[in-house]
């Protein structure tokens, strides 16, 4: 099956053999992960879509692929319009589409290890309107036809030392045990991979760019735990680290272990646990308590050691970014630099640092019109040169042993147009609005999102992604529950009150289809703000990311005095923090890039 059309045809034949009239294909794994191992990339294998969020539905005569605004351009460039119809989320969804398109009285299959219980409930309700049935499959039909499907990773687990974690794994389990006792529960299921990595102070290599291991866990009210992971992945150092309080089992034993929890009160997170986990517990006679995974919030609120590590990682990363930006400014005008050359150069600069473990995601290196594709991924087929008088966008990050980075910089090659400078300055104004925001405790990210959009809205412009996402500590580059995003958007992920210690991105942007894209992204830390005379406890942001913002794209006349002060202060901090890590031409370039802007 050398073509995607062949694969779609083969799936339809397999569904017919399985007496199914359709099948739903999500982009996730058994842990509801955003980024998944190669063995679980079923949507990409079937359709060619390489984004990090999407799903598909295959029926006998039609098929649809569902993506949000971040992937409007990408899905059309990667997925054939001949075989697939493009559906936009949140305007529609797989369940809403099935309500209109499922065959009357049909049998629609789904893999219960790849969907949440809420999705299953919504799908059953939608299909009932068509007299159709939702059918759980014992084996995923894509796995039956994907003959060269990769095996799951066999990489060894590694210990995340307390000097980087800031707390011992035993201390974290005790906190979970106390939480369970408070809620009169006997155990909690941990199925999100980053939750397990955080709770047990372990890291892995099972998902590209995300240092997690394929595992499940049960944490009990007595402080002990059961960890389900392939035995070949556990070395003596990890066994010693986990200690006697953690019983180790093979990963495939997890479902049977759920069946032994009869009469127990078990907490399961409906957002992060798949439907099959709920069903196994209910069959066993356990009392299921649908509540948030008790590690989610403690993981999101970084402790002082994690914050210090993040700041150290950001300074290392900022030095690599600054060297890269000088290289682009020097080499791109010669006409030989392309997207892949540029992203390879940045990765090479990052890898000069011994603390780097990996990139935090595949770099988004977009020249000219490719930069307008929000989650663009350059390839030999799409690779473009950085042309004169054009915009180049690079969104990238590193996984350091003490922190995860994520930064976007937009630069001009040659001279920008007046429109480019106007749009970039509006994005900058929105970025500054978030960076300098002060707000009372209890404020949610959705309440701040419009701060970043207002300068664009005033010109009748907007961007189709959230303004900020949470970031982990040598973990997932996209971490919940905190967000800065409109309520109800595809990326909102809930509406969590912001708390001191949370780390988020600040990344407004603007994208002109077919011409260019621009985004300014720094990471920010939620901190307490002491305001004289304040009648409420107040919070604000401390910027963690330090690298120059392209002054050539800024129309200083559009900045008010406070915005100009912020920009000049930011660049002064960049020079103070990054300058000591550079020398020679790199340092001289940084001094010029960070020079204050003056307005007559």
TrEMBL record:
SUPFAM superfamilies associated with the record: Creatinase/aminopeptidase, Creatinase/prolidase N-terminal domain
Pfam families assigned: Creatinase_N, Creatinase_N_2, Peptidase_M24, Peptidase_M24_C
GO molecular function: metal ion binding; metalloaminopeptidase activity
Entry-linked CDD domains: APP, PRTases_typeI
Spans through the membrane: none
Keyword Hydrolase: yes
Every Peptidase M24 C-terminal domain range: 538-597
Superkingdom of the organism of origin: Bacteria
Domain named Peptidase M24: residues: 311-528
A single GO cellular-component term on record: cytoplasm
Segments forming domain Creatinase N-terminal: 7-138
Key words of the record: Aminopeptidase, Hydrolase, Metal-binding, Protease
Gene3D superfamilies listed in its UniProt record: Creatinase/methionine aminopeptidase superfamily, Creatinase/prolidase N-terminal domain
PANTHER family xref list: XAA-PRO AMINOPEPTIDASE 1 (PTHR43763)
Family: Belongs to the peptidase M24B family.
Name listed for the protein in its UniProt record: Aminopeptidase P family protein
